[in-house]
Amino acid sequence: MKKKLQIFKKKPIKYSFIVIGMILLVVISNLYLQWCQNELSLELVFKFAFSWHTEKFILGSLVLLIFLLFLCSLAGSLILGSVLYAITIGILGFADYQKMFYRTEPIYPDDLKMITEFGLLREMIGTIPFVLILLIAGVGLFFFGKAMYKSRLLPKKIQIIRLSSLVVTIGLLVYVSNFNNPNNLLRKAYDKTALWIPYSQKMNYYNTGFMGGFLYNLKVEAMDKPDNYSKKTIEAITSKYTKTAQEVSGSSEAEQPNIIFVMSESFSDPQNLTGVTVDQNPLKSYDEIAKTTYSGKMLSQNYGGGTANIEFEALTSFSMELFNPQLTTPYTMLIPKMTEIPSIVSLLKNQDYQATAIHPYNTSMYKRKDVYKTLGFDQFISEETMTYKDKLQNNPYISDESAYKEVLDLLEDEDNPQFVHLVTMQTHMPYSDKYTSTDYSSKSQGNKKAIDSYMQDVAYSSEALKEFTTALKDVKRRTLVVFWGDHLPSIYSDEIKADNDEVRMHETEFLMYDNQQKLSDKKNHDALSSPFYFAPTLFDQSNMQMTGFYQLLSELEKQVPAFEKGFYYKDQQWSQTLTLNQVQKELYEDYRLIQYDIVSGENYSLKTDFFN
């Protein structure tokens, strides 16, 4: 009797230690995530958790506790469940720190889909850290799997507790995943103290904590329904702009031109930034083309990354600015749910074009293989199927010169007009050690080696573009090119960033080229644009038949030439908020209604000729 009493006394003490240990693990892990988010500042971490935003820190810790209990229940082991939890949180925090460092942007839930992109991840973080993380994760998963296998031998009573805990935690995690449902109790608890900052995810995470920001970016409807959305409203909009397009468009040419889109990875002008001085112009070859045709600056949504979002805007002419901020990557979060989406691809396919996408990398990035199929491309040429695969010196990526040769081969088909969409890789990070020597030297505030190597990269890219446009002069069919850089590279120091306003850090180069020199505004070399305007601008510049949708965008561009979340250019000045006069507001609202109709609405506009 005395022995049983001693065991009974010991068990509560043992369980108390377990509970305290799990709570400590959750609190420390939450502090760690916040530390990674706050640029490794312990002062900011402790102020956030225990002074400024304690309520939000506790709520985030509760979610982490549910996740920890889920892993422990799944493994059938408190120890191995906790170990895998610690490894998962450790890798997540490291990834967030890396993304903040390179792109000044936090990790989103949707980024976790990139976990299988081993090649790109290794190149981004370096071989040694990548192998180390892979090794730790592999060992953790091995023992976790072993624990799950052995858990079938646990006593019946323990199994009941374990399975009950597993069901409850799965249910709670599913409930948490619906964080953006207005009736979600966790969201309501956050809303009592949280000031969400949708126009800046970086500040959103800082203000609500890593966990708050992460939860905020869980699944959400692409766009909120506008108050005046209806079939009648959409039909009025489509009729209005389709009629205008028919009245103002030039006559269609007897021969349809080839159209080439070239999205050049990280192509930009380092000389555009204060704090970077160069000994010679790396964009010399590019400038020689730009000064003879319609060209200027493009406003990129992102800094240091976000290629697929810029590509989405350019192909569909839909703006990321109009989406709910939680929809961070349409290629993985939106298009896979759709059977069709209007784009320049579908428009040209209806006009008997052959449509080809070329990306000198693998087909899985951003689900491009599936996305291109939905958009309507006839074929997707990747690094595996390319004819030309030459690389420059130590550069791990296929060169721009090789990519352009691939395009020129397609243009040899003189029977059919071609639409080719090329996404280059030569100038992708990392930038150090690509070339044995560089012809360019910079004076910059930090990271000189990477900047010099980057300048060599864009110089080679510029030269390849010049050779390509020269070769196009021998193509008999009229050929139109839209060339742009998707974003700046993530190589600039905090000092350089501080010396330049945010707009400068989001401006890249663009030009439109006609091998027959017939663009209507080819003397304008200081244009300012956003990528969703490219297709309608090209049609307008080349005197091609405008669609109703492109007519709407063309009129909007005249009023608001460039905009993204937090960056709005109108009336020849930049602002962080969008204030519109009556004409501008009507155009913007018509555009918003059409985009909602396609991505979240009833697709009324698809039943008209608005996009054709």
From TrEMBL:
Topology within the bilayer: Multi-pass membrane protein
Pfam families per UniProt: Sulfatase
Which residue windows are transmembrane per the record? Answer: 12-33, 53-71, 78-95, 124-148, 160-177
UniProt entry tagged with the keyword rRNA processing: no
Domain of life here? Bacteria
- Its main localization is membrane
Which keywords, in A-to-Z order, does the entry hold?
A: Cell membrane, Membrane, Transmembrane, Transmembrane helix
Residue ranges annotated for the Sulfatase N-terminal domain, each copy included: 257-541
Give the matching CDD domains. Answer: LTA_synthase
Pathway of this protein? Cell wall biogenesis; lipoteichoic acid biosynthesis
Q: Where in the cell is it found?
A: Cell membrane
InterPro entries, from UniProt? Alkaline_phosphatase_core_sf, OpgB/LTA_synthase_biosynth, Sulfatase_N
Q: Which SUPFAM superfamilies match?
A: Alkaline phosphatase-like
Please name the PANTHER family in this protein's record: LIPOTEICHOIC ACID SYNTHASE, PHOSPHOGLYCEROL TRANSFERASE I
Name under which the protein is recorded: Sulfatase N-terminal domain-containing protein
Recorded source organism is Candidatus Enterococcus lemimoniae
Q: What is the lineage of its organism?
A: Bacteria, Bacillati, Bacillota, Bacilli, Lactobacillales
